[in-house]
Amino acid sequence: AQQERTFIALKPDAVQRNLVGEVIRRFEAKGFKLVGLKLVKPSVETAEEHYAEHKGKGFYKGLVDFITSGPVVAMVWQGKGVVASARKLIGATNPLTSEPGTIRGDLAVDVGRNVIHGSDSTDSAQREISLWFKEGEIADWTPVSNAWVYE
Ligand code: DAT
Ligand code: MG
User: Fold this and answer.
1) For residue 1, what pLDDT is reported?
2) For 65-76, how does the pLDDT look when each residue is reduced to its tens digit (9 = 90+)?
3) How many angstroms separate the Cα of 118 from the Cα of each of 9, 135, 145, 147, 150?
4) What average pLDDT does the segment 16-21 reach?
5) Rounded distance, CA 114 to CA 87, Å?
6) 140 CA to centre of ligand 2 in angstroms
7) How much is the pTM?
8) Which residues line ligand 1 (CB under 6 A)?
9) Annotated active-site positions, please?
10) Beta carbons within 8 Å of 86's beta carbon, 6+ residues apart
11) What is the largest distance, in Å, between two alpha-carbon atoms of the chain?
12) pLDDT digits (tens, 9 = 90+) for 41-60
């Protein structure tokens, strides 16, 4: 269960607003393990595949335009229950209704500028990790803090 992985992306607004460190800090402080990290300006093809489930919706084009508008920090985080836990750390999709204490609740206002993406299931996580990362770009390691994070 500690091997569960999720895909997290800091969107172009997060990079522009200098929130990269703040968001990474929250995942580190929680106790999750960073196993993949890169700054990339996504191609339209990658963005469309990433958001394929939303194809046909009114906000799809704007979403693809936005996510491809600048560099994104793509990450893979690993840990017990990390997929669901990351979604809780991130908060609701619309930042106006995200709870305070969540990333979107604390750091964002508009749904089209909501700072961060996180996989919504372990299946989505697998699909998204393989879309954004090659095998050699993910590095597992053993944190010295393991015994103090896990019982
Ligand atoms: P989430 O990012 O919380 O998984 P989602 O998968 O439903 O949310 O949608 C993907 C992104 O699309 C979301 O982060 C912001 C944008 N989006 C979703 N619903 C929207 C809407 N009603 N209007 C504008 N943008 C929207
Ligand atoms: Mg989603």
Assistant:
1) 56
2) 999 999 999 999
3) 7, 20, 24, 26, 23
4) 98
5) 13
6) 25
7) 0.98
8) 54, 59, 63, 93, 111-112, 114, 117, 120
9) 117
10) 6, 8, 27, 32, 77, 118, 119
11) 47
12) 999 999 999 999 999 999 99
19-33 per-position pLDDT tens digit = 999 999 999 999 999
Residue type for 51, please?
Answer: Y
| Alpha-carbon dihedral angle through residues 51, 53, 59, 60, given to the nearest 10 degrees | 50
Please give the backbone phi and psi of residue 108, each rounded to the nearest 5 degrees, phi first.
-140, 165
| Residue in the structure block whose two tokens are 């609701």 | 92
Q: Which two tokens stand for residue 97?
A: 């209704």
Residue with the smallest CA separation from ligand 1 atom 22 is: 59
Provide the token pair at 59: 């906000």
Look up residue 35 and give its two tokens. Answer: 């196993």
